[in-house]
Amino acid sequence: QVQLVESGGGLVQAGDSVRLSCAASGRTSSIYSMGWFRQAPGKEREFAAAISRSGRITAYADSVQGRFTISRDNAKNMEYLQMNSLKPEDTAVYYCAADSTGSDLYVSRRATAYDYWGQGTQVTVSS
């Protein structure tokens, strides 16, 4: 089993930057890719970013490309999402996810590919 705990959310203004963190514990050696998903009120959960275990492969949703940067520190069992130039439409609960059944050769944008999830952290961007 893997446990994921997000932190770093809060209320910010448009244009601000925020860094989200995700701490993994348990069988962390089983984790391949990790990702960030978000869910805005009244909307479905959507993909934001993902990173392979080696960090060599990353993927971003078009809506965050160029503004968000995903990274991970395997030695510390941490994953991060640096969010810059935040917009009100970035307001959502952000979830950390981990995939323990995949590969280091690719990352998935599908929520169903991830078998462990954190409880989420709220990010609210005011205009």
How do you describe this structure in short?
By secondary structure, the chain is mainly β. The chain has no helices and eleven strands. Strand 4 (34-39) and strand 5 (46-51) form a beta hairpin.
Describe the model:
By secondary structure, the protein is mainly β. It contains no helices and eleven strands. Strands 2, 4, 5, 6, 9, 10 and 11 form a seven-stranded mixed β-sheet that branches. Strands 1-3-8-7 form a four-stranded antiparallel β-sheet, with no helix packed on it. A hairpin with a 4-residue loop joins β7 (68-73) and β8. It starts with a strand and ends with a strand. The model has no long low-confidence stretch (mean pLDDT 96).
Properties at a glance:
mainly beta; seven-stranded mixed sheet; 127 residues; 0% helix; four-stranded antiparallel sheet
